[in-house]
From TrEMBL:
Residues 10-207 form the START domain. It comes from Panurus biarmicus (Bearded tit). GO terms for cellular component: cytosol; endoplasmic reticulum. Pfam families: START (PF01852). One of its GO terms (molecular function) is cholesterol binding. GO terms for biological process: cholesterol import; cholesterol transport involved in cholesterol storage; intracellular cholesterol transport. This is STAR4 protein. PANTHER family: STAR-RELATED LIPID TRANSFER PROTEIN 4. The lineage of its organism: Eukaryota, Metazoa, Chordata, Craniata, Vertebrata. The gene is Stard4.
Length: 207
């Protein structure tokens, strides 16, 4: 089992990486999917051979409550249809932990269930919050799962300037699912999953 990294420098590097993604110009993104709730774009990842996805949509709730639903914690399993289990393995501070979670099979199980172990960090960003993560090679891989790997990922959530009771939620996701998978299947699954994330989250916030 690999040792856990020092959380402070990892958190700082992760935040800086996500802020850099957030400054990428619109012209570098190609639209992948658009729904009533969100738009998803993609561009080649700098981290691996797949794509970095950007998703954005307006969520009708205050920033803190939105992020409470996204962060590792009791809310997430209740509403996120892709996530099937989640355990916090280590807690460094209130806003910093290591979690292990599993995801359901996708595309008629062409993509089998996956397991991830992620370092998760939540911090302030402008008038809102950033919650971000990166996978670690840590802990034993459980049977019946392929261990996937999240390269730097995160969600920026800031209040709308003209309507603070609503939030602009922007996500950056680059997941290496691993295993022998056709790229087209991964692209379809990622785009759909991100769009569904917004519709599931919006329903959860209304309850």
């Amino acid at each position: 089992m690999n040792l856990l990294p020092n959380p402070a420098p990892l958190a700082s590097k992760l935040r800086n990486t996500l802020v850099r993604y957030h400054s990428i110009g619109d012209g570098e993104w190609r639209e992948a999917k658009k729904t009533r709730d969100a738009t998803v774009w993609r561009k080649p990842s700098e981290e691996f051979s797949g794509y970095l996805y950007k998703a954005q949509g307006v969520v009708e709730d205050v920033t803190n409550r939105v992020v409470d639903h996204i962060c590792p914690g009791p809310y997430r399993l209740d509403w996120d249809s892709l996530m099937t289990s989640m355990d916090v393995m280590e807690t460094f501070e209130e806003n910093c932990c290591v979690m292990r979670y599993t995801t359901a099979g996708q595309l008629w199980n062409i993509i089998a269930p996956r397991e991830f172990v992620d370092f998760s960090y939540t911090t302030s960003y402008e008038d809102g919050l950033l919650t971000c993560g990166i996978s670690l090679d840590y802990g034993e891989v459980r049977p019946n799962f392929v261990r996937g790997f999240n390269h730097p990922c995160g969600w920026f959530c800031v209040p709308l300037k003209d309507c603070p009771s609503q939030s602009l939620l922007t996500g950056y996701i680059q997941t290496e699912l691993r295993g022998m998978l056709p790229e087209s299947a991964v692209d379809t699954a990622m785009s759909s999953t991100l769009a569904n994330f917004y519709s599931d989250l919006k329903k959860a916030l209304k309850t």
